[in-house]
């Protein structure tokens, strides 16, 4: 497969910047978990690896998704040859619907990865506009001066790949997310043989997944989860509900295998679970016979010991299928004593309290619950320290750049690389926006480009900034008080109000007295202004704000947002 | 020590409810972590055990503390004989300053517990008003018909006790928080001997700590943390900062011992750390020689390898000492490469992201960081499964009531009790407000009283309810839009506005166009009303709200709080 360089692109603006032979520029995922996106720039060509999103952190109030800022790419759009995707997780493909609207370039990935991507593009009505190119492991594509070979890695989503990127300056190995599972469910081992082949010829740089660098030893094989299921299932008297990430096709396969062996039918719950199972079956990554798969509507025809429901909602998302079941608010499923719920997924940081509440509610419904903390019903998809060392020793790169991790993970991964003998000066701690340039036989961070995060809120992409978020935070803590005052602009006389309305503060029910007192405070503040000052809206606003702020702080120690509205009449 | 029943109390209202010989009524802490408070009622007397607070959950926006609703006690104030405190943690003593304002009764506890309580009461200027009675382990107090013996238990705070409560109906063992540490730092073992003595005579009920019921095996001894310090300290080239809970006096002692052995001076950072160390030293629970303790102001006179700072802020609280250090915003302490920070505390659920960010910032400053996840620098203060079984088997109660736990912990603790042979019908799963009554030789939940949580926000106790919180939540997600309209009440003509102001929405900077369009939407909605309807404020408000809601949803998919203000002119 080969894609030539388009002639017109040589005229692209600011091409002169490209005096360094090879530049690697992280646009997301270095210094944070999620939002993975990396640009490789060489000889006028730009190659992008992954294009992920991040779910909002707790202080990003009201935000739906976070995507990388692609301002830098936007200015160089004509030189982008394509996006290579390592695997089909949201933090690697989730920003595509937003980024492709501005940057229409072909996508390269394995069949399942592109299956998931296509589903996503269909939702955003982009599926007819974007070219998807399916690549098999050990197959290469040429993108301008880059040759990219896809190499199998084991991970929690099926069909994941590392990339061996051959550039005019040397080979870069970009691991994507990986673990070195010795007994993967599909038998597809991490392709250490190919990595060794590249290592023999010499690797310029290794960019390796840092997610689990704080964990000692080896990550358990995915097969362990199947064994845990095999232990739990025979002891369950009633229905079994397994909640898992809908992209975890291996996990689903293992549930199916154990369930069918124990005479249970499979019923799917949750939109993305139904979609992903359909895609994975169509592409041959998941084996469920039609006779074992039933529609949730048929639940009533089965006795409890014949039922295995595979569901989304393992993070306790408020509107999810599993939360509705836990709150006894699900159309088809009503939990009873004897039922078992297995949360076969990790707790995403930030969701601890929500999931904890979910489990409490499941117990209130009478179910028994198995989860990561009390049973081995989940294993990680990321390499632990010993696997990371094995990757470093297999690839033996000249330079090492840790990727996919918060700042501390990157630091720890470099400490690990130092332990296996990579000299300090060849370990590069880069974070988003750092441009790593490779010269002759050195590499260094040579500049910092604008990078960052863009918030998606509803249909708005990027219009919610820090001021809005700061206001939302302030509003969320003590609510808002609006004061409406009408002032005659010639006499300075008060001719309307003050009217006070509030939300999220205290003025409810029996707080009428407090409202009256607040009004008096405003009147007093106005009295202290002379006629001229009262004709100046800004002056009045400031006086009102100050007086109320002081009064609220002293009387009840709260600091609501105070919004004076002055009508000039 | 003895406190007789006051004569006047026999006239207390609704005393007739007390037909059951013994009633146990959880007012907090059963079905939640924190907020521990239990009432024992017998023969006209009420005894309270503990009076804790809870730090707000993420959805309790702007709330400072959560305390138990004591409405039920308020109506029976004259019959309350006193509050016995098991130990000095916030979730057992933190609500005292609020509760004592309504219920002035004597407090009973060990010296350190009351030392912490007194500090708290001083802050609220209550210290002169409340009677504190110091009790030593194995000492008893009589409170009405109750005799309460305090029995030593090991826990993460020094001087903790279980209570053996002798009632006319039998003995109840109330463990408080405990672990069965075989090598506690102060040598004070959990008093299994006394518990056995009660068991021999027969125990009516055991109420036991469920916090760690999901953990298998035994909880590690506090001494392990000292050993971890002893391994880490000699390897640290620069300054060492240990962050710990200021109430963890044993932890502080172990830091001090290792630091002094390595020639480091102790400097304290954080208000509560300074206060608690002072109290513990005064009472003889902590040994630091004056020559080893230095003021933080003297930091400049010490070389890095002479410094050990013990600090608060292990939870990444925004204004805390440690966070300021991590953000390079601390007056005296500036981190450098070579410095080491040890987070010697657990991650309180809900704080995961904040602490994770704290650690990243510490690494950015150049420090090395040890924390619970990567090193054994913290152990729990609560009993794991094997210890809980040992407690059950030692006390051999007739009835078992799990306490201190979320719903799932209570369920799991009963499963554990069943395993050691307590029959199902003698395990009582009670949650807050359930009245457990003991008859002859049965016990059962006989009614549910009003219980719940009261929010403290600034100086306001209980004035923030669910409507205010719901508004804050709504405001936090999409902000607020205020629309001001003046309408002539005789003609229905629009004579002012519409003015639109917003906070936390989108109307910033370049959104002027959108603001204009929104104004047009309001005008259109007003046009559709006839003159009569326009004179009805409610009618106008509803029309404006509906039109804007529809417009915002369609154009940008957001749902701000819309607050129309109609001036009748």
TrEMBL record, chains A, B:
What EC number is given for this enzyme?
A: 3.1.-.-
The UniProt record lists the Metallo-beta-lactamase domain at: 34-229
Report residues binding Zn(2+): 87, 89, 91-92, 155, 177, 404
Entry's localization field: Cytoplasm
Cite the cofactor comment: Binds 2 Zn(2+) ions per subunit. It is not clear if Zn(2+) or Mg(2+) is physiologically important.
SMART domains named among the record's database cross-references: Lactamase_B
Q: What GO annotations for molecular function exist for this entry?
A: 5'-3' RNA exonuclease activity; RNA binding; RNA endonuclease activity; zinc ion binding
UniProtKB keywords? Calcium, Coiled coil, Cytoplasm, Endonuclease, Exonuclease, Hydrolase, Metal-binding, Nuclease, RNA-binding, rRNA processing, Zinc
Q: Where is the active site?
A: 209 (proton donor), 382 (proton acceptor)
Please list the cofactors this protein needs. Answer: Zn(2+); Ca(2+)
Enzyme type, top EC level:
hydrolase
Chain sites annotated for binding Ca(2+): 62, 64, 457
Coiled-coil regions listed: 523-550
Which residues participate in substrate binding?
378-382
Major location (coarse): cytoplasm
Q: What domain of life does the UniProt record list for this protein's source?
A: Bacteria
Fetch the InterPro entries from UniProt. Metallo-B-lactamas, RibonucZ/Hydroxyglut_hydro, RMMBL, RNase_J, RNase_J_2, RNase_J_b_CASP, RNase_J_bac, RNase_J_C
- Tell me its family: Belongs to the metallo-beta-lactamase superfamily. RNA-metabolizing metallo-beta-lactamase-like family. Bacterial RNase J subfamily.
- Assembly with partners or alone: Homodimer, may be a subunit of the RNA degradosome.
**Main role?**
An RNase that has 5'-3' exonuclease and possibly endonuclease activity. Involved in maturation of rRNA and in some organisms also mRNA maturation and/or decay.
PANTHER family with a match to the protein in the record: RIBONUCLEASE J
Q: Per its record, how is this protein called by name?
A: Ribonuclease J
List the source organism: Pelobacter propionicus (strain DSM 2379 / NBRC 103807 / OttBd1)
């Amino acid at each position: 497969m080969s894609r030539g360089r388009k002639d017109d692109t040589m005229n692209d603006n600011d091409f002169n910047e490209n005096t360094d032979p090879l530049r690697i520029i992280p646009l997301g995922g270095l210094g944070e978990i999620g939002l993975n996106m990396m640009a490789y720039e060489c000889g006028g060509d730009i190659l992008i690896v992954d294009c992920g999103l991040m779910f909002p952190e707790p202080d990003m109030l009201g935000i739906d998704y976070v995507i990388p800022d692609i301002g830098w790419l936007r200015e160089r759009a004509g030189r982008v040859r394509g996006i290579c995707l390592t695997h089909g997780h949201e933090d690697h493909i989730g920003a595509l619907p937003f980024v492709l609207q501005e940057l229409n370039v072909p996508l390269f990935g394995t069949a399942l990865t592109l299956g998931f991507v296509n589903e996503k593009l269909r939702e955003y009505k982009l599926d007819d506009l974007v070219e998807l190119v399916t690549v098999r492991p050990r197959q290469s594509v040429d993108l301008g001066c880059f040759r990219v070979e896809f190499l199998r890695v084991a991970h929690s989503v099926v069909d994941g790949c590392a990339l061996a990127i051959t550039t005019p300056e040397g080979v870069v190995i970009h691991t994507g997310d990986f673990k070195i599972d010795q007994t993967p469910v599909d038998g597809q081992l991490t392709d250490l043989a190919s990595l060794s082949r590249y290592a023999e010829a010499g690797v310029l740089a290794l960019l390796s997944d840092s997610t689990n660098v704080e964990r000692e030893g080896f990550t358990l094989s995915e097969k362990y989860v199947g064994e845990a299921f095999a232990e739990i299932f025979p002891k369950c008297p009633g229905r079994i509900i397994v909640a898992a990430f809908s992209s975890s096709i291996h996990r689903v396969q293992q549930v199916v295998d154990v369930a069918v062996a124990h005479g249970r039918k499979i019923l799917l719950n949750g939109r993305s679970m139904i979609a992903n199972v359909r895609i994975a079956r169509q592409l041959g990554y998941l084996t469920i016979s039609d006779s074992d798969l039933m529609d949730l509507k048929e639940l009533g025809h089965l006795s409890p010991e014949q039922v295995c429901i595979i569901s989304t909602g393992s993070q306790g998302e408020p509107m999810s299928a599993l939360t509705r079941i836990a709150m006894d608010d699900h159309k088809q499923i009503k939990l009873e004593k004897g039922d078992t719920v297995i949360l076969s997924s990790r707790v995403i940081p930030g969701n601890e309290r929500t999931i904890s509440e979910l489990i409490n509610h499941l117990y209130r419904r009478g179910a028994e619950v198995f989860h990561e903390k009390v049973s081995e019903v989940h294993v990680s998809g990321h390499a632990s320290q010993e696997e990371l060392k094995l990757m470093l020793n297999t690839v033996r790169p000249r330079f090492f750049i840790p990727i996919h991790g918060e700042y501390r993970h990157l630091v720890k991964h470099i400490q690990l690389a130092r332990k296996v003998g990579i000299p300090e000066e060849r370990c590069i701690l880069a974070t988003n926006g750092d441009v790593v340039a490779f010269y002759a036989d050195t590499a260094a961070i040579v500049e910092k480009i604008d990078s960052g995060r863009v918030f998606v809120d509803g249909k708005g992409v990027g219009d919610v900034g820090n001021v809005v978020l700061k206001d939302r935070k302030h509003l969320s803590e003590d609510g808002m008080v609006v004061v409406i005052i009408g002032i005659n602009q010639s006499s300075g006389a008060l001719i309307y109000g003050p009217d006070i309305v509030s939300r999220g503060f205290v003025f409810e029910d029996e707080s009428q007295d407090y409202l009256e007192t607040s009004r008096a405070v405003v009147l007093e503040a106005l009295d202290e202004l002379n006629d001229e000052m009262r004709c100046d809206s800004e002056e009045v606003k400031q006086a009102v704000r100050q007086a109320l702020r002081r009064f609220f702080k002293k009387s009840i120690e709260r600091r609501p947002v105070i919004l004076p509205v002055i009508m000039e009449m």
